[in-house]
Amino acid sequence: MPILITQQTRPDPGPSPERELATVTWTSGSGTETILSDWRQGYTLGAGAKGLGMPQYQLYLRESGALDGDVVTGVRAKARQIFLPIVVYGEDRAEALAKRALLADAFDPLEVNRGGEGVLTVAEPRTEPRRIRAYYVEGMEGSEGRDEAGWNWARFGITLHAAEPYWQGPEITRSWGAGISADPVFPLGVPPAYPLRARNVQTIGESVRVECPGDARSYPRWTISGPAASGVRFVNRDLGAEWRLDRPLQAGDVVVVDCHPRRRTVTLGETNLWPDLAPGAQLWPLVPGVNEIDMLLGDVGETTRVELSFVPLHKTAYAVRAGLS
């Protein structure tokens, strides 16, 4: 008996979407911007980039004769090394050599040559870009081997050093007022301190929720405008940490408290207010996610304001489009 075989056809899936690639940009110490992933400008990023994911970590270990193994006493993220395989080319040899010279100027790490620390930016399609500050280390020495350079092209493996290992998102700023004209104020305690217990999220007070969209601890910069009584106190309930400023602020005074561990300053104009911090003060960071914060200020006025600015930090350069995380 004959067996009938019918031809099976698959439904047409339609046109495949065009593959979108990340845009990689280098901004030199002098502010010159070079797109490293755009062949139309003479630069492309080849396969094999490294250092865009998790940072490396260092474990601090202690050994004891009474224990097997060891004890981890501390962990820190190490400085980051980034490797970028870049191809440079031009319409002719003169253009290719000019592109190579421009790239050398852009990566120059010496400030005296109008170079210095630059910024590497990675922007995935339809996401916020992430940046990291870095110095050029090596890779453009100029090997002319058969697989490394030609008449109108050259291939480089550039190494960058990032002293701070985390990628930065766009800066976030929030501000709060005393809320005297619109919100009731409930004075607590005894003079001279009258902390506010206002519940409006845009009003200085207790249990203010601040969301940090990064996935690594980020460092706030507080700007406090007077007036306010001595004893201004900021508490991060999630960390159980706080700092207090034992100095009254007059109307017109603007105090800036920078909590970044590489800076950590408390200033009023040109005046150093570090000695006015209470003993044991901790200039705490923001943890990833929601932070519950108490902003306790007394004797406030209509001009009293608190402004928070911070840069979310991320462990990787890979931003995820909203709705896909």
Automatic annotation (TrEMBL):
Highest rank taxon of the organism: Bacteria
Positions with biased composition (Polar residues): 1-10
Annotated ranges, domain Siphovirus-type tail component C-terminal: 214-299
Pfam families, alphabetized: SPP1_Dit
Region ranges (Disordered): 1-21
Protein name per UniProt: Tail protein
Organism: Actinomadura pelletieri DSM 43383
